[in-house]
Write a structure and sequence with these properties.
9-stranded mixed barrel, alpha+beta, 2 helices, 13% helix, single chain
């Protein structure tokens, strides 16, 4: 009798291993094509319902800039009123907003693998990578327009940490920042997968007096076909740092 007890016990133990521990739920798949809409209101309107944490100011308010960054932003606003806008990276075919080509009339495609999620922005033909393989930030970062992004899953939400931004991008609407800018994002599918909600919060001890937050909605649209966007081709109205057109067409 004793010879047959061990196999039975082992079989039972195997069943415990197989069924006793709950398998981790699969991560949502963001792969697809989307069209961007700021906020969750009417198209083109900023979302005033965003519940931010840590006392963050939302995008519907003026960025809480301080020191020379507030002074520089005031100059940007004045230059626009004068019809000679400064600090406009888009006019030079360069990335402007620090986390991607948002709030423009062009789609974005997400490609998700087990190691990373890649966002392809049709507008200005930009690429942003978020690594999800457990790596950390490099000890020696090479500053980049979109920084260095690493993400992990918390339930159905992708939490992204980004550092290493170039200082010549913006946190919003032409407002610049320092090289100590830090962004935390929360991305999740909503409305049964019909939309991607993208919340982002910035902190910067040199440029911001408080955290600054914004929310974007990306509507899923499988019918979208991504197209080429060559910003520099036939760009006859390049603007310099003084708001002057250097190559009139």
């Amino acid at each position: 009798m004793g010879r047959f007890r061990a196999p039975v016990a082992l079989a039972g133990f195997g069943m415990i291993l197989a069924f006793g521990a709950a398998a981790a739920p699969p991560s949502p798949n963001f792969s697809g094509r989307y069209f961007m809409q700021p906020g969750f209101g009417a198209p083109g309107q900023r979302d005033g319902s965003l519940q931010t944490s840590g006392g963050a100011k939302s995008f519907i308010e003026t960025p809480p800039l301080k020191g020379k960054y507030a002074e520089d932003y005031a100059k940007v606003l004045e230059s626009r009123k004068a019809g000679r806008p400064i600090g406009d990276n888009a006019a030079r075919c360069l990335p402007g907003f620090a986390l991607g080509a948002f709030a423009n009339p062009y789609p974005v495609e997400a490609i998700q693998t087990k190691d990373q999620i890649v966002f392809l922005f049709e507008g200005t033909d930009r690429v942003r990578r978020i690594y999800t393989d457990g790596r950390g930030h490099p000890k020696q970062l090479q500053p980049a327009f979109y920084g260095h992004s690493i993400g992990h899953w918390e339930g159905d939400t992708l939490v992204v940490d980004t550092v290493g931004f170039r200082a010549d991008t913006t946190v919003a609407d032409g407002a610049t920042h320092s090289d100590r800018l830090h962004a935390v994002e929360h991305l999740k599918l909503v409305e049964g997968g019909k939309a991607l909600q993208w919340d982002m919060t910035f902190t910067d001890p040199e440029a911001l007096s408080a955290p600054f937050a914004m929310r974007y909605r990306l509507d899923s649209d499988p019918s979208i076909r991504m197209m080429e966007y060559a910003c520099a081709e036939n760009n006859r109205n390049v603007v310099n740092d003084r708001g002057e057109t250097t190559s009139p067409g």
